[in-house]
Specification:
This protein is an alpha/beta fold and 495 residues long. It contains 15 helices and 21 strands.
Length: 495
């Protein structure tokens, strides 16, 4: 039997009368993982109303007490890590080590945000006047909407939820439909920790219905969205009509610059993980390998040789290096890009859907490598799959020009032993994240995560910057002079 989940509104799970349902599907074998309610605009209204009622009480709960509750959630998540990691792998398809890592990232970030409950720093500054005290404090925004993707189905929701909660906001959470089970399990942990009713509400359903209703609701003051560029633009425009703060984390076309002095065995391990970990379905995935001509042939041969021993299969098997892509839609899109690549570039490895045996039950693709010139579609457009474009360059300056000449700017990497060139790359690469001698993976939770250009609209998640997304700064002046003082106004006597 497939477990059925309702909506979580005002502290209770329920299924509305005559509700339509949808199922999430294991991309490795086609089996249903859970059954969920296709939420309506009425469901969104009930959730936002519950969050609005709960806001004053949660806002007035001391921030360290909010942090205590987050610590309880983190402890419960540790206890359930193995089971939750398995659900991540079953519902999304990433290999079990990465499924467990997804959960561990959630734990780490929740613990980090719990500590922010005793910080939430403001500023104190001197006044230009006597007997006057000047400071800033942080206050919550109110009711916020958290709309999350499927590729990190516990980590990204917790990036948003934990940061929003510690700053005193209440939440309506809409997860990606194809990883709703992971999201529901996360909500259950917050419920078990004793989160007051209405503080966190959970509505499943389509972006066109649930997502649009959240963005349109005037009681929602902040929308935090992670997903594709096209949808992100739509969310941004709709949110602007209500003068909401809209935080966007969108796509990437992340480069690794491999210089002639690089440690090639180290770079080989990094490129394999960066390009084909999570089947290339990270916004930080290495999708372009920009290689100095002096080591181009040698490194490409090493890479292809390693891929011939790169196991693709059951993601629950610890020996598997790459599992399926997340859905039939993802498989179709990636195969379409592979066909584009075959027309405009040179296929060097892979390029096919895997068939036979276990492969016939799921969405398994070969890790794929194209040799291409910069400017092709596969070298500039986000594919979000296990497809790597390899580009030859004559030197560092050309590598940087190629790296920057795309619409995205999330993660970037350079492999070099030259410390001067490494620091030049930190300055020169147009990206929110730069790695030296490591692949284009994400950020540690105590550091900001985000990018430039079409990767987002300037905000950052994770790290101490996460609280900025969900808090307002109030400026406070305390005048204890017992007389009227006028800043910036001349007090010269009138002649």
């Amino acid at each position: 039997m497939v477990e059925e989940f309702g909506l979580f509104i005002d502290g209770a799970w329920s299924t509305p009368p005559n509700a339509r349902r949808f199922s999430t599907i294991n991309p490795a074998n086609g089996e249903a993982v859970g059954s969920f309610v296709a939420g309506t605009t009425e469901d969104v209204d009930r959730a936002v109303s519950a969050a609005s009622r709960a806001f004053p009480g949660w806002r007035d709960t001391p921030a360290p007490k909010r942090g205590d509750l987050l610590l309880d959630v983190a402890h419960r998540m540790k206890e359930h890590k193995a089971a939750l990691g398995r659900i991540v792998t079953q519902e999304m398809g990433k290999v079990i080590a990465e499924g467990l890592g997804d959960v561990q990232e959630s734990i780490d970030f929740i613990e980090y945000m719990a500590g922010e409950g005793r910080r939430l720093f403001g500023e104190t500054v001197p006044s230009e006047l006597r007997s006057k005290f000047c400071l800033t404090v942080r206050q919550p925004k109110g009711v916020v909407a958290c709309i999350t993707p499927w590729n990190f189905p516990t980590a990204i929701p917790n990036w948003k939820i934990a940061a929003a909660l510690i700053t005193g906001n209440t939440i309506v959470f809409k997860p990606a439909s194809n990883t709703a089970r992971c999201a529901a399990e996360v909500v259950r942990l917050y419920e078990a920790a004793g989160l007051p009713p209405g503080v966190l509400n959970f509505v499943t359903g389509s972006g066109g219905v649930v997502g649009n209703a959240l963005v349109a609701d005037p009681r929602i003051r902040t929308v935090s969205f992670t997903g594709g560029v096209e949808t992100g633009r739509d969310v941004y425009v709709r949110g602007a009509q209500g003068l909401k703060m809209v935080h966007l984390e969108l796509g990437g076309k992340n480069p690794v610059l491999l210089m002639e002095d690089a440690d090639l065995p180290l770079a080989l391990d990094g490129v394999l993980f960066g390009a084909f970990g999570t089947s290339g379905q990270r916004c930080t995935a290495t999708s372009r390998l920009i290689v100095h001509e002096k080591v181009y042939d040698a490194f490409l041969n090493l890479l292809i040789a390693r891929l011939q021993k790169f196991p693709v299969g059951d993601p629950l098997d610890p020996a598997t290096s790459m599992g399926p892509v997340a859905s039939a839609d993802q498989e179709k899109k990636i195969l379409e890009y592979i066909e584009i690549g075959k027309r405009e570039a040179t296929l060097r490895y892979g390029g096919h859907k895997l068939t036979g045996g276990v492969y016939d039950r799921g969405h398994f693709l070969e890790p794929t490598i194209f040799e291409t010139k910069h400017g092709t579609r596969i070298s500039k457009e986000e594919i979000f799959g296990p497809v790597l474009s390899v580009i030859k360059v004559a030197g560092y300056d050309e590598a940087v020009r190629v790296a920057n000449d795309v619409d995205y700017g999330l993660s970037s990497s350079i492999y070099t032993r030259d410390v001067n060139r490494a620091f030049r790359a930190i300055h020169d690469l147009e990206a929110g994240i730069t790695y030296v001698n490591a692949p284009t993976i994400g950020a540690e939770v105590q550091l900001p995560f985000g990018g430039v250009k079409n990767t987002g609209n300037g905000g950052r998640e994770a790290g101490s910057a996460a609280i900025e997304e969900f808090s307002e700064i109030k400026t406070v002046f305390v005048d204890f002079s017992a007389k009227l003082q006028k800043a910036q106004i001349d007090e010269a006597p009138v002649a």
